[in-house]
Write a structure and sequence with these properties.
153 residues, single chain, alpha+beta, 5-stranded antiparallel sheet
Length: 153
Amino acid sequence: MKINIDVDDSLQQDEITIHCRELTDEILELQRLLSKRQAGPQRISAYIDDTEYYVDVKSIVFLESDGNYIAIHTAKSIYRIRQKLYELEEILPRDFIRVSKSTIVNTDLISSIKKNITGASEISFRNCTKQAYASRNYIKALIEIMDEKRLKK
């Protein structure tokens, strides 16, 4: 498979075209993943006790596995959802990145990263006292994404 990327700053919006000899399962899966990744969910259904809430994805600070549940942290609350972290990772917008085996963070809300060469690096968030930790295996990718965001602004 050959992949080309053409940058054209005159486009009004991004456009993806797939050229193929035949429509295979792999091509259909690629199209499905791109569509799902682009749109992403606007809200996630989650619970506090027995009450169901519809949490705006942009308000999510980070998600972490907590036993059989995923804890969804916003600035003010912690919701629970019974889903796998990797399943959420697939449907969340690209601003969300895994920073450890058990944590996904919203890179749009990160205010600082306190690097720790020997252990987990501490991540702080804007307008929030909560913190998450990035393991040594994931910190490099997080730093690269944060540098890209900084350069785009």
